[in-house]
Amino acid sequence: MVVAVGILAFAASGAEGQEIVLHNGDTLDGLKMTWDGQNPKARLETNTDKQFISEGSGSIFAGSVAPEGTDHTSYVAFRFPVDPLDMKNHALAFEVWSSEPENTLAFHVRGLNAQGKIVAGWGSWFRPLVFNAQTMMLVPGTASGKLRWEEPNIEAPESDIVFLEFIVGSRSWGQAYNMYVDNIRLEPTKAPTKTPSE
Ligand SMILES: [Ca+2]
Q1: Ligand 1 centroid from CA 136, angstroms
Q2: How far apart are CA 23 and CA 175, in angstroms?
Q3: 65 CA to middle of ligand 1, Å?
Q4: Quick one: which of 13, 20, 136, 177 could link to 186 by a disulfide (CB 3.0–4.6 Å)?
Q5: CATH fold of 18-188, please?
């Protein structure tokens, strides 16, 4: 029984090898709309439509309508604070959808420091979101699935990540574009590498 207690204590300590939920999408707790806050068409809401939920009772919806009469890319995004992220042995994982995949040209995920500088960033300008659920697993320094590592955008590689930001962009002027995101979490990538002992 002593062994069992020992294992339990290890599991409860939040040690490496465990999934850590960063935002479950069931509420708007901690979320702030960024990038397109001044556009009256921009919305940040808790979605309860089950086809865009992978966990619990809700997911995060952010969407807008790209304004007409401009040639600028329109962006809408949300941001939330996190405890400094340990990305060494973890991937940033989540499910993501778009109900307007044709209009949703760009998708970026960024880890930011306390000053809002980019510590980690992944993205694509090739309509990476689709109507059906995709699980994305992002690892710093590497392209992950449809997203590339945005090395040129990194501003503060040595900083702690204390905010996460999810961004969608559109050049379909006059059209709706959006993302649904759920169960944002850290997942273990591998067991920590041991230094060979001599
Ligand atoms: Ca959820």
Answers
A1: 15
A2: 29
A3: 25
A4: 20
A5: Jelly Rolls (2.60.120)
pTM confidence score = 0.88
| Residue 112 CB contacts under 8 Å (≥ 6 apart), including other chains | 79, 118, 119, 161, 162, 163, 164, 165
Q: In the chain, which residues have pLDDT < 50?
A: 1-14, 198
Question: With the C-alpha atoms ordered 12, 18, 23, 27, is the resulting torsion angle positive or negative?
Answer: negative
The three-state secondary structure class of 67 is coil
Q: What's residue 38's pLDDT?
A: 75
Cα(105) to ligand 1 centroid in Å equals: 24
One-letter amino acid identity for 8?
A: L
CA of 143 to the centre of ligand 1 (A): 26
Ligand 1 centroid to residue 93 C-alpha, Å = 13
Domain ranges for the chain: 18-188
**Residue 90 alpha carbon to ligand 1 centre in Å:** 20
- Report how far ligand 1's centroid is from the alpha carbon of 155 (Å): 31
